[in-house]
Amino acid sequence: MKNRTVLLYMMFVFLSNFSTILYFLTVYLEFVGLSMVAISSMMVAYQVSKFILEVPTGYIADRFGRKTSGLVGVVGMLGYYAALLFIRSPLLLIGAFALKGFAVACVSGSIEAIYIDSVSQDQLVRLNVVERFVFYASYAISACVGGFISSVGAYLIGLSADIIAMVLALVVVVCIPEMRRGDTTATPERGISPKMIGAAIARNGILRSAFIMDCSQAFAFVALEDFFSLLLAGRGMNAVASGVTIAVQLLASASMGLIVPSVIAHVDKGRFARICGIVRLSLTALFLIPFTPVYLLPVFYVLQTVAYSLFAPIKYSIFQNAVDSSMRCSLISVQSQMVAVGAILFYLFNAALSSIAGIRVILLVALGISSLVYIPALFRLTSQRP
After folding, report:
1. Residue 305 and residue 253 in contact, taking contact as beta carbons nearer than 8 Å
2. Cα–Cα distance measured from residue 111 to residue 10, given in angstroms and rounded to the nearest whole number
3. Which CATH superfamily is domain 4-175+194-383 in?
4. Domain range annotation of the chain
5. Which own/partner pairs from 280-287 qualify as long-range (CB within 8 Å, at least 24 positions apart)?
6. Which of 188, 266, 312, 359 is the most exposed place for a label (fewest CB within 10 A)?
7. Closest alpha carbon to 242 in 159, 145, 165
8. Could you read off the pLDDT of 54-85 as tens digits, one per residue?
């Protein structure tokens, strides 16, 4: 990676995704005495905030500077971690989760857009695989460390480490070069409007299919990640086992993802992505079925993420190639907004059914509903051309 921007971006991906508390957040919030109602309210506050602010922050980044938007987002994440470390009031923590939504919305697409504009389109699949490897490696290391921290209740140490990682991410963002507005590749950003963004989506079937996939996938998988540790604890697995499972799952996914460029050179990319997408849904169902033996849960969880890592670079490259560079931040923000919509819909769905069913059964039903929308969108996405 001779390109300095690419190298700095990969460092940013690693540092900004390093979070020992991420997979054990619900466990930590219960540990400090918060009720499940309060925890759910915080999750909703985060998703609603991100949903409301995704497009406005992407629009601002395209108009006034992607790097500035990224810097504001990283500072906001520092504020969120500090709140987790020092605040115990449920109301104030709800505000902290709303701040996290704002911060994620600012970061979403901004630094990524700088990176994408610095490389050629034919490099995207290969670099997307590298990015996924760095992303998974960061999650794996922090999940493994987080498992040990959770097992001994040393959450303050973990949160302190997360804050240090975010400070380093802030330094990296400062060092990332951004093209000046006078550059010919940057000038199309002038005059962009929400109406133009809507028109771009309306006339592009690839974008519509990608957004539908993101929303339907989030309906089942965002909560799966949020409640993953509690799901395993409910089947008798401790925090260390959960952390190691997550680490193995992420590293295996990252390693398998490295074979994507060589695989797609010899197979039909669309067909390969469709098969992997359907296999992932099937493996996730096996993980959620109450009658699955406990010793097989880590196996199915690892395999479903491996399946996702195999086709995710293809999906992202199709999406990125279909995006107008002048609207990149805004359209990536819309993509993130669709994820927020899916998560909000699930939490409303969960609230309606929580009195009659457990979280595992609710997630299984949500996965079935999600599949009815996700699979047709996956076929449309992989069958179309820009």
Report:
1. yes
2. 11
3. MFS general substrate transporter like domains (1.20.1250.20)
4. 4-175+194-383
5. 280/304, 280/305, 280/307, 280/308, 280/311, 281/367, 281/370, 281/371, 281/374, 281/375, 283/307, 284/220, 284/221, 284/224, 284/367, 285/364, 285/367, 285/368
6. 266
7. 145
8. 666 666 676 767 888 889 999 999 999 999 99
